[in-house]
Amino acid sequence: MSLLELCQWIESTSSSTTIRESALEYPILSALHLLGIAWFGGMVLMSDLRVLGIGLTHEPAGEVWLQFRRWKWLGFVVMLVSGGLLWWAEPVVCYKSLSFWVKLALLLLVGLNALVFRRGAEASPEGGKNAKLAAGVSVALWVALVFAGRGIAFL
């Protein structure tokens, strides 16, 4: 079974049809997804701006990271679950959307940035070129990711 055939099968399920054709479920999921993105992205942005020396400079960067960690995970879970359900509602549309594939690639890069660069930056978040580089890359990737996500509806 090809990926397209799998997407077509998922789209034909009753749960996919229910979400897609519901007057409330799809808009509520969309709103929750945007809220999750804003929540998670906002927490990441605040942490990144602190590392870059732009915001919350009165607090140690390590403390800022620790304070936002739980909130980041909450936003991440909301974003992931709602995004998965939105995909489940329209997998064929997503499969055919270049913006969707760009968004997935950017999500992968965000994850790699967090795993590779930011782990080292967390060890010494106040300084070092690696910490600032990781924070700058993170901000750029998140901006691109938001634009790619919006493009799914149009491209």
Explained architecture:
By secondary structure, the protein is mainly alpha-helical. It is elongated and about 55 Å long. The longest helix is centred in the middle third of the chain and has 29 residues, at 61-89. It has seven helices and no strands.
Task: Walk me through the topology.
Layout (H helix, E strand, L loop, with lengths): L2 H9 L2 H8 L3 H27 L9 H29 L1 H6 L1 H26 L5 H23 L4
The major pleated sheet works out as: none
Number of strands: 0
Order of helices and strands: HHHHHHH
Which range best describes the helical content: under 10%, 10-25%, 25-40%, 40-55%, 55-70% or over 70%? over 70%
Oligomerization state:
single chain
How far apart the termini lie comes to: 26 Å
Residues in β-strands, percent: under 5%
Based on CA atoms alone, the radius of gyration comes out at 18 Å
Helices, by number, come to: 7
Name the descriptors:
single chain; 155 residues; mainly alpha; 7 helices
In short:
The chain is mainly alpha-helical. It has seven helices and no strands. Helix 3 (25-51) packs antiparallel against helix 4.
